[in-house]
Structure formats: structure tokens, C-alpha cells
Amino acid sequence: MNILVTGSYGQLGSEIRDLAPDYELHQFVFVDSKECDITQKAEIEKWISVNEINGIINCAAYTAVDLAEDEAAKAKAINTEGVRNLVEVAEEHALRLIHISTDYVFDGTARLPIEVDAKINPIGVYGKTKAEGEKYIFQTPADAIVIRTSWVYSSFGKNFVKTILRLIDERPEIGVVSDQFGSPTYARDLASVCIRIMTQPDPVSSKGRTYHYCNEGVISWHQFAEEIVKLSGKENYPVNAITTADFPTKAKRPVYSALSTTRIKDDFNISIRNWKEALKECLIKIQTGKLD
Ligand SMILES: NC(=O)c1ccc[n+]([C@@H]2O[C@H](COP(=O)([O-])OP(=O)(O)OC[C@H]3O[C@@H](n4cnc5c(N)ncnc54)[C@H](OP(=O)(O)O)[C@@H]3O)[C@@H](O)[C@H]2O)c1
Q1: Second label for 235, Cα 20 to 30 Å away, from 33, 56, 218, 270?
Q2: Is 151 helix (H, G, I), strand (E, B) or coil?
Q3: Ligand 1 centre distance from Cα of residue 12 (Å)
Q4: Distance 244 CA to ligand 1 centre (A)
């Protein structure tokens, strides 16, 4: 296949770039926001035609959750209208499209891992613009799917794991929110699944379906931080539990957004590893610059 990866210098896109050489039967075309701005349909079309693309993995998104509250128009242009452009191009050129969405389409009232068909009710601008983008995937006759993911981190880009590693070097102690629960996702694991779903025969006619993908386990941000600290060899470093009220942010975040991954495991016959195992691998990569 010839696969266009949009937003390919973000966390997920970078992991796909890193894994692509393992899939030598397929050609990948990696584009960043300057080369292919998804808010400009003509730019997407140019890349499709020149490279005879037959699949798109959309990693492009406006992901600044707090800033989105002040930049709603920009978030909508990328997360909603950009997705509409990709869907239209997928329809016109009969392409397979994998679009990535978020746990932030949910309001946080669940107390068990959220099923793919649960009612969405985003509580912030970012989640609303992503939810509107998903609708284009559900309405299209094109071969398109949505994969919702949560709490994404990677050795590439900015994320919670790298922030904690920086803070433990800079401060004598840290406070981390212990009353928000979810499941971390190592972007490399999700990247591998995206490539497999794109390149392998579709066993279930997945067109129009919603999937959830995250690593196994439900934890708080505080537990996540404690494990990062422990795995980086600083067991005695103080990680204090604080509440959401102690750490006000511009955007409201769901209190609980763990995702049930049953459908993606069943439909594509994949297994998903535990969050601790994935985190360990990512930390080795961050600390040594390589996997061992
Ligand atoms: N990060 C998380 O915790 C998280 C959680 C749940 C779901 N997700 C979803 O997972 C997906 C991947 O997230 P990520 O963490 O890899 O995001 P990321 O690191 O923020 O990367 C997003 C990429 O999109 C690019 N982009 C922004 N506007 C664009 C445009 N108009 N046209 C083309 N590219 C554009 C950005 O490029 P520039 O830097 O040049 O703007 C950036 O490289 C997204 O759909 C996101 O909503 C993420």
C-alpha cells in the first residue's frame, strides 16, 4: 500500500515513522503540518495524487487541551473541518482512512472502562471539536474507522512522562492529581496497531466502526507519576497526591476516562500489554535513546 501519514511529527506520527522500516512491503509518505495542512483540502489532494496513496492514517490534531478553550476556532478548523476534508478525499479517491480520536469525548461520569458505543458528552472545547470530527467518519460511505485513545505518551514530543522526568530533576517534591482516572497509552503500541490495521486484510469489515485503544490497566495520574519515578530509579522521591481542586486548569477534564478495548482486540485479534510494561520500554528508550 501507499500510506499517507498526516501530522507525522507529533507523538503518534513519529512512532509510525520509526516503525515504518519494519513494513518494507508498504510505502509511507510522512507529512507535517507545513507540507500538508489538513485544513486545506487541496493540499491533501496533492499528496494523494502525486503518490498514488490508497490509505491515510490521520495523526494530525489540535491537542492543546487548555489552550483550546481560548482558540476554539483553530481547534475546530483542525479537529473538525480537517477531518471533514480527509473524509471527502477518502470518499473521492476510495481510500482507507484511520482517524484517531480521544477519551475526552466522554464526560467522566463512567466508573468502568467505557465501551465504544457509550454516549459521548464532551466537557471541553478540545473534546467537542474531536467529537464533531468523529461524526464525519460515522456518516461517510468511505472505508474509514475511528480509534479513540487516551493519555498518550512517547519518547517523541511533549507529554506527561517527560514532564515528570524533568520536574523530578528540578524540584525537591511534586504534587500530582490523584482523583482523575484513565489508562495510559504508549504511542508506539498504538502506532503498531494502526499500521497493522491499515496494511492487513480487514477481517470484520470494520468500515464506520469505532474502536478504543489504550494499554491495559486503570490508574490515576498520581499512580502514573509514582511509577515513572520508581522506574527511573528514584524510589524515595516524594510524589504527593493532590486533588483536581488543588490544580485548577483552564479546561475541565473527565474524572474517569478509561476505555474498554474489547472490540479492537476481538476484531483484529490483537493483545495489548499492561501500562507498566509499556512505560518501562518507553523510559528505557528515553534514557538510552534506544530499545534493548
Ligand atoms: N496526546 C494525548 O494525550 C492524546 C490523548 C487522546 C487522544 N489523542 C489523539 O491522538 C492523536 C495523536 O496525538 P499526538 O499526541 O500524537 O498529538 P501531537 O503530538 O500533538 O501531534 C499532533 C500533530 O498534528 C500536527 N498538526 C496540527 N495542526 C495540523 C494541521 N492543520 N494539519 C496537519 N497537521 C497538523 C502537529 O503539527 P505542528 O506541531 O506543526 O502543529 C503535530 O505534529 C490525535 O488525534 C489526538 O487528538 C491524544
Answers
A1: 218
A2: coil
A3: 8
A4: 25
Give the containing element (helix H, strand E) for 101. strand 96-102
Q: Which of 213, 257, 180 is nearest to 12 (CA)?
A: 213
Residue in 104, 113, 95, 114 with CA at minimum distance from that of residue 75:
104
The CATH class for the domain spanning 2-154+184-215+257-273 reads alpha beta
pTM: 0.97
- Within 6 A (CB) of ligand 1 lie 6-7, 9-13, 32-33, 36-39, 59-63, 78, 82, 100, 102-103, 130, 149-152, 157
Which of 14, 63, 126 has most ligand 1 atoms within 8 Å of CB, for mutation?
63
Length of the chain: 292
Q: In angstroms, what is the span from residue 60 Cα to ligand 1's centroid?
A: 5
143-149 and 210-213 beta bridge pairing: parallel
The domain spans of the chain are: 2-154+184-215+257-273
pLDDT, tens digit, for every residue of 73-95?
A: 999 999 999 999 999 999 999 99
What is the SS3 assignment for 106? coil
**pLDDT digits over 221-272, tens only?**
999 999 999 999 998 999 999 999 999 999 999 999 999 999 999 999 999 9
